[in-house]
Amino acid sequence: MLCVVAGAGYALLRAATQLTARAPSGGPIDLSVAKLPLYATFSTLRMAIAYVISLVFSIAYAKIAAGNRIAERFMLPLLDILQSIPILSFMPGVVLGMAALFPGSEFGVELAAIVLIFTSQAWNLAFSFHQSLLTIPRELGEAATVYRLGAWGRFTRLELPFGAISLIANSMMSWAGGWFFLTAAEAFVLGPKSFRLPGLGAYLAGAAETGNAAALGLGLLTLVVVIVLLDVVLWRPLVAWSDRFKIEQSASADVPRSGVLDLIEGSALFSALARRVFRPVGLTLDRWLRPKPVAPPIEAPPGPMTVRWWRRRAVGVAVMVIVVGLAGWGAIATARELVGLPGRDWEHVGVAAMATFARTAVALALAAAWTVPVGVAIGLNPRWSHRAQPVVQVIASVPATAVFPIIVLALIRIPGGLNIGAVLLMLLGTQWYVLFNVIAGATAIPSDLREAATTYKVSGWRRWRTLILPAIFPYLVTGMITATGGAWNASIVSELVTVDRKTVSTVGLGALVTGAANDANFPLLLAGTIVMAAIVITVNRLVWRRLYGLAETRYRLE
Q: Do 193 and 278 share a domain, yes or no?
């Protein structure tokens, strides 16, 4: 898998070196207030397109991985690698490749921006739905089999409803992550070329570069307004609606509410649409995709063992041959690209990797220390959830890069200041993944289990040990995995910062990757990416895969 990633990275970077001359540059960004509504609309539209693509990709990816354990052994580490590789590692190839497909037009750059936003949204959705598929109670799976629901019926009546709470929570986090990296997606620099698309991200980047504090404040205010509006008209109704999918025998008296959802459910127009459009379409899909009754197959006379083995595994063998071929090509191509890299650069890569790994571990520990108790408190109290949800979304969505220079100015005056600042920015970019998943896990705790704990007077640490921590454990693992990817991604903007026209950096893979991208040093960029992927594969194998197995076997609700 590491060789496949190396080959893909080599192909993207080689494409970047070949296509630089053909890529168009973006125009200037108007910082007037009158442009803000239009820019907000453009950015929201890009986010929506990327989110729909992310949702479809994540559901399909998780279904394939959960349905085939052999494929899962490759797909989960690959997903972990993809979410951990910094956006600058593959941005040159994506941006220049897309732009070169449509020379003289901004359509290719628009596609590149959507792809880059997709990379900040998809991975946590895929991990969350995969975790939901693995933790479905066995008795519900057996009931689906007994009633012969088939693949489509099982998906629509069991898997998607069971994963709804986690998917909605991680959808909010995906949008927050998309806003976080919006600046990088709409305004990026590759060597001498600058690419800008009209949008809030480019507006904030332009205001920060010119030192226009008024424009920066107005841009951030517009971003907050958009986030709050989306929370009121989209996320809060979805959270209230998803409460019906909790696995419990008695409904809770205190449920989340949404005025918009009440309006929709009491609307004659929506009732007519549901009756005349949505329900007929759903029934038609059910008829088309429902498994057809078939006659029992006629047993063919058994052939030789070798022939039967090839019949059962022909597709798997073909896929494996392709994967091995890609791995071999990736290893050879990467080796040729890196053979001329000086030993001093490799030593720098090793030291940088250890430094970034240590900062990532510290950031994850700090994130878990406060998000677990706060997330449980919010998830178990719908009133607090109603109040805190928009606040958390706003804070999580505001790009930390917009306020980080201010923090750096205060920290660079003390010894090791940027090391502390890098951990702080990693924390700002990762803690929300844990918080949103913990909130979802606490929300999904059945009310009858909570009532039983209250009846038997299980309180304090015993309540945490016997009810809360086991119930949120699968969600916590998912949050920690996605937070790890967020920490590696945040390293590119936390370890090398430009403040007051001065560049301040510290030792780390993020600084190395950022410097290599700015200098168009593609061999060094490739080396940093490969080392990062190797670390991610090792941690996935030694830590996350084992915790995933524990969540599947011991901490599933049944």
A: no
